[in-house]
Every structure is written in C-alpha cells, then in structure tokens.
What does this fold into?
Amino acid sequence: MIVCVCNNVSDRKIRQAVNEGMRSMAELRDNLDVGTCCGKCHSCAKQVLCDSLQSGEPHRHQAAYAIALAA
Ligand code: FES
It folds into this structure.
C-alpha cells in the first residue's frame, strides 16, 4: 500500500526502514521524504511506524515506540 503518494513511499518501504534502524517520523522524513510535500500521509505513516516498532523485538523497540507515539 502506498502511504505517501507525493513521494511514492509504501508501507513496505517504511517497515524496511524500521528494520534498518529508523525509529522516528523525523528519520523517515529525512531519509524517505515521507510527509515533506502535502503532509496528508503523516498520521498513516506514523501508524505504520508504530506498528512496525511494536511488531519488532519488544524490549529493543519499547522506548522508540513511546517516542514515535509522542512525536
Ligand atoms: S502524501 Fe505524503 S507528503 Fe503528500
């Protein structure tokens, strides 16, 4: 599914970015350009980010998940 239409970023690409170490919307924005145009994708991208962090190793991602939710 395409999350960010403006920059052609899919949920798969966001999950891959999380697997590679990205932990925040700021990192997704800086590396994938998510939300840098119209911004309508922000909430969906944030949900995919949080889901990806939650589905990973719980202890390792717990703090990052809290930070992503607060952003
Ligand atoms: S849909 Fe992501 S910036 Fe427009």
Remarks:
- The helical segments are 11-19, 25-32, 42-55, 58-70.
- The domain at 2-70 is CATH 1.10.10.1100 (Arc Repressor Mutant, subunit A).
- The pocket of FE2/S2 (inorganic) cluster is lined by residues 4-7, 35-41 (CB under 6 Å).
- The longest helix spans residues 42-55.
